[in-house]
Amino acid sequence: MNGNTLQILIAMVVYMAAVILIGVFYAKRANKSSDEYYLGGRSLGPWVTAMSAEASDMSGWLLMGLPGVAYWCGLADAAWTAIGLAVGTYLNWLIVSKRLRRYSVRANNSITLPDFFSNRFREKKPVIMLISAAFILIFFTVYASSCLVTCGKLFSTLFGLPYVWMMIIGAVFVLIYTLLGGFLAESASDFMQAIVMIVALSVIVVISTVKAGGIGAVIDNAQSIPGFLEFFGLATPAVQDGVQLVEAGKPVFGNAAPYGALSVASMMAWGLGYFGMPQVLLRFMAIRKEDELKRSRRIARVWVVISLAVAVFIGLVGRQLFPIEHLTKSSAESIFITLSTSFLPPLLAGFVMAGILAATISSSDSYLLIAASALAKNIFQGVAHKKATDKQVMLVSRITLVVLTLIGVLIALDENSVIFQIVSFAWAGFGATFGPIMLFSLFWKRTTRAGAIAGMVGGGAMVFIWKLGIANLGGVFAIYELLPAFIFSAICIVVVSLLTKAPSKEIEEDFEAVRAGNTEA
Predict the structure, then answer these.
(1) What is the arithmetic mean of pLDDT over 193-197?
(2) Which residues contact 494 (CB under 8 A, 6 or more apart)?
(3) The pTM is what?
């Protein structure tokens, strides 16, 4: 290990130590009860609520996946995805946050998403709780694996060590941290990590643009590649066996591919996912005062717009500065690392690399914690052992964290995994399973328990059916699976709700009380 690499390692170790200290600081409070461990006693302030929600949402995908897409095939896919996410973020904070905060208190002080759905429909047999907990376990395990892939790629690229061992070390670190502090530690560190992420992005984009000769030079280079700088066209790298061809020291591209309304709708559909993202929705439930959500919305909106725009531009400037450095779709996701280590002093590069680690930790701890709560709180205590004590619930939760991490490691063993693709599938799963039923639960009084079940099962199943089957037909069917699955789930909810008996008087009274601003049962 040379001197530069050692400095990078030292900077990252200092950062990791700070994260662990946050976990230790909150460990005593987190272990008081499952309510504190899973939701922090509804004590988050507006800044922590906003920044932790966005940091846990974006993950290493923001610093590696999104720039990688822009580097590989140009502006269109990355930009329309970013626009969809920015719009979805704003609408979620605007129309869902206050109503969910209020309703989760009214619904027997629910502290998890399965709790909320089950209590919202006053279930006697916790079918909704089981279904929602099962989908959370499935999709968050996949999601967590994408974070471990990020860890593996980061450490392997930086230190030249085997991907698998680097990924496992990252998994162990995330597991220890999550075991220590629970939701409060997670939210507090996510606040810090959101700052690290946006600073890292901003520093790299400014320095890289200067090194490239300015914005004009970056744009000129992008325009020289067919379809690379178009909103309605797509660059097509010429590849052989998955590796882009190089001629005379330059990457080879084919003719620009068309990028029509269907492709735009497909990428914009990413915004629909926010209505079903547990890691974001839990922040709405955890803020200390409903009135503070307006300030949180403004903070979140600014952070998201800046970070997404900068991440996309990093991919464009990276293609000019290092045109043949990354010749596969998977390798393209390391362009942020290449820029950082090439243009920054080693110690500063280490702190910027901590931005990727920050993004990864802020997401993976959220995913693992929510998945563990689904099994321990909702399945173990909610269904299998209703008289379980808090101590027993916490023990099951920690065992679950270990098991889920091991499964995530197994999924992440393939170092050629593309982070963007893994995240897109899990994102679609949550968006279609929970997005429609969240909106209907909050805003349509006629929604029934049977409709909720049909919507969740229909939406979740359609993600698999469309992705693994229908999408292979190509053409119009190649659209991102979230959009058709979301629509199908909404149709299931409406049709089944109208065909079944109207909700009970008590459920309707809850709905009206929440709409009027009353949380008292």
Answers:
(1) 80
(2) 440, 451
(3) 0.85
Domain count, the chain: 1
Is the per-residue pLDDT at 356 higher than 80?
no
Q: 405 vs 391, which has greater pLDDT?
A: 405
CATH number of the domain bearing residue 187: 1.20.1730.10
Instruction: Determine the Cα angle at 473 with ends 467 and 478, to 5°.
Output: 55
Q: To the nearest whole number, what is the mean pLDDT of the chain?
A: 85
In a domain, 42, yes or no: no
Beta bridge partner(s), residue 237: 253
Tell me, what's the pLDDT at 455? 97
For the chain, the first-to-last Cα distance in angstroms comes to 62
Angle at CA 104, nearest 5°, toward 98 and 108?
A: 155
Is the model more confident about 82 or about 417? 82
Would 335 be classed as within a structural domain?
yes
Report if residue 520 sits inside a domain: no
47 in a structural domain = no
Spatial separation of the C-alpha atoms in residues 495 and 498, rounded to whole Å: 5
How buried is 43 (Cβ within 10 angstroms: 0-12 exposed, 13-18 middle, 19+ buried)?
middle
What are the CA-CA distances from residue 384 to residues 106, 116, 126, 404 (Å)?
25, 18, 11, 19
Range of the domain at 153: 3-33+58-515
